[in-house]
Amino acid sequence: MTFLRFALRRVAEMAATLLAASFVIFGALYLAPGNPASFLLSGRSASPEAMKAINEQYHLNDPFWEQYLRWLGQVVHGDFGRSIEYRTPVSTLLGSRLPSTLMLVAMALLLVVVIGLALGWIGAVRGGMTDSSILVTTTLAVGTPSFVAAVLLQGLFSVKLGWFPSSGSGTGFAGMLWHLTLPAIALALYLIGMLARVTRSTMLEAMGHEHVTVARSRGVPERQVIHRHVFRNTLGTVLTMGGLIVSTLLICTVLVETAFSVNGIGQLLDLSTTTKDFPVVQAVSLLIVGMFMTVNLVVDLLLPLVDPRVTLGTRGVSA
Q1: Which of 67, 180, 232, 237 has its CA 20 to 30 A from that of 45?
Q2: pLDDT attached to residue 107
Q3: Domain ABC transmembrane type-1 spans what residues (predicted)?
């Protein structure tokens, strides 16, 4: 029952935060200098009659709160408006581009979790030259921005070697997997280095705990000590990073999708920002915020189950 109350409270907090985010996202159009109608025209001149038609179509003459509540009601029903640039419903654009982004983020997340945890484990357990090599490698990975990694990977594996396509999203599962391999690596590289270093340092710290020393003194096999008493205690810290990892992936998709011409929502956000297609910008921004908050909610619900030291309702460690 305590867990249920905690979950309901977190869902309510998420809904309130998402509501506040929607207000900020919608209000950003009115914080920009100039008349919102001028942005809708994208700099083109218009007659007074055309300007009047635009104001009536987008209800720009209505009070701000009335406009916001109308837009919010449409969003709740899945209607994000109509794209100014593409002349099509925004929900249709999102539906056609979201699968590529989700596939890219899922592939990158898999690489981050598997490789990052493995490198951190190996560095902490083996030490010596192996640990030093992993530290150097992860330092280089952390110091390489996603767009730089994208350019390097394209130049080597697409242009020079011709192993992977340099652009596009592909069709079908196999085609998408092949086209999104390089973008996923470019997207994951920085986070692999960061997760590996955090895992390594957390495991090294756990190895010095008293219960680990006691387990070793009782003759518990080293592999079992590492698995049960060291690595398991690091999962709470790693899981806490889940929100940061996913938020970084979602943000960096804009750069990576643009570099590789991936037909996803990151590229759509970049193009729509350039062309001042505000209905699309608002929808994509709200979608990214919602995805990020959903991941944080899942992390909060899983954390007490993974780490018993974490009490419900807080991320802190109980005394």
Answers
A1: 67
A2: 92
A3: 98-299
Q: Nearest CA to 195 among 137, 112, 126?
A: 112
Tokens read off for 33: 């200098």
Residue 198 lies in a domain: yes
**By percentage, how much of the chain surpasses pLDDT 70?**
84
The candidate with the shortest Cα–Cα distance to 201, out of 146, 228, 241, is 241
DSSP H helices, the chain, are 2-31, 36-40, 48-57, 64-76, 90-126, 128-142, 146-153, 172-179, 181-207, 210-217, 222-224, 232-240, 242-260, 265-274, 278-306
Residue 111 pLDDT exceeds 90: yes
Q: Can you tell me the distance from the alpha carbon of 144 to that of 21, in angstroms, rounded to the nearest whole number?
A: 31
Q: Which of 237, 291, 238 is nearest to 269 (CA)?
A: 291
Domain enclosing residue 220, as ranges: 95-273
Q: Which two tokens stand for residue 168?
A: 């596009």
114 inside domain: yes
Say if residue 86 is exposed, middle or buried (CB neighbours under 10 Å; 0-12, 13-18, 19+): middle
Q: Name residue, tokens 């996603």.
A: 146
Share the mean pLDDT of the chain.
80
Q: What is the pLDDT of residues 128-158, one digit of tens each?
A: 888 889 888 888 888 888 888 888 888 888 8
Residue 108: the pLDDT is 92
Is position 28 within any domain?
A: no
Q: Which residues contact 142 (CB under 8 A, 6 or more apart)?
A: 190, 193, 194, 197
CB count in 10 Å sphere of residue 222: 11
Determine the Cα–Cα distance for residues 232 and 255; give it in Å rounded to an integer: 35
Q: What is the CATH number of the domain that holds 165?
A: 1.10.3720.10
**DSSP type of residue 6:** H
Is 139 within 8 Å of 184 (Cβ atoms)? Answer: no
Average pLDDT over residues 183-205: 88
